[in-house]
């Protein structure tokens, strides 16, 4: 069970939630430490390479390893494993703990507790990777508009 948010964390989370509701998006700096961001970047690049090799050399189903993208040439949506024994899974799980875990500096935990609750499902953990020559991704929604938000996306 996660400990309750401190008064300071709760106040920040409510301010973030109000801004997200009013503006439709919010930028939060420092979600990952610089060290963790570097570890995740290297793990994502390894995962992308390994997933590409599984598709090209071993006939793996691309849809099991990569998400579907608009303007896909030179861009990949890499589905990142959080379990299953993959060599990168522990790094991705550690990053999620840093973002949402019980520690006092988990920068997304309070916001997500307010907007989706503690029992919400993490639908996908992935990374977008663009190579030189990739077209700019167009502005788009991941879901059709609904009266109540059914999906939050974090980059």
Write the layout of secondary structure elements.
Blueprint: H1 7-23, H2 34-58, H3 62-65, E1 75-79, H4 89-100, H5 109-115, E2 126-130
Antiparallel strand pairs: 1-2
Quick structural summary:
The chain is mainly alpha-helical.
What descriptive keywords fit this protein?
single chain, 155 residues, mainly alpha, two-stranded antiparallel ribbon, globular
In words, what does this structure look like?
- It is a single chain.
- The protein has 155 residues and is mainly alpha-helical.
- Helix content is 42%, strand content 6%.
- The protein is built from 5 helices and 2 strands, in the order H-H-H-E-H-H-E.
- A two-stranded antiparallel ribbon has the order 1-2.
Largest sheet: 2 strands, antiparallel
**SS-based structural class?**
mainly alpha
Radius of gyration: 17 Å
Unreliable stretches, pLDDT < 50, 5 or more residues? none
Percentage of residues in DSSP E strands: 5-15%
Helix content: 40-55%
Strand tally, please?
A: 2
Shape: globular
């Amino acid at each position: 069970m996660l400990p309750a948010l401190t008064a300071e964390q709760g106040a920040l989370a409510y301010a973030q939630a109000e801004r997200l509701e009013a503006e439709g998006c919010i930028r939060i700096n420092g979600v990952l430490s610089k060290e963790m961001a570097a570890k995740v970047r290297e793990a994502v690049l390894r995962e992308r390479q390994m997933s590409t090799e599984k598709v090209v050399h071993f006939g793996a189903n691309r849809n099991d390893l990569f998400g579907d993208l608009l303007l896909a040439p030179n861009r990949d949506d890499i589905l990142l494993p959080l379990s299953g024994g993959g060599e990168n899974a522990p790094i991705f799980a550690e990053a999620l703990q840093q973002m949402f875990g019980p520690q006092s500096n988990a920068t997304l935990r309070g916001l997500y507790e307010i907007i989706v609750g503690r029992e919400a499902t993490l639908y996908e953990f992935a990374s977008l990777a663009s190579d030189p020559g990739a077209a700019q991704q167009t502005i788009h929604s991941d879901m059709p508009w609904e009266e109540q938000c059914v999906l939050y996306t974090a980059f």
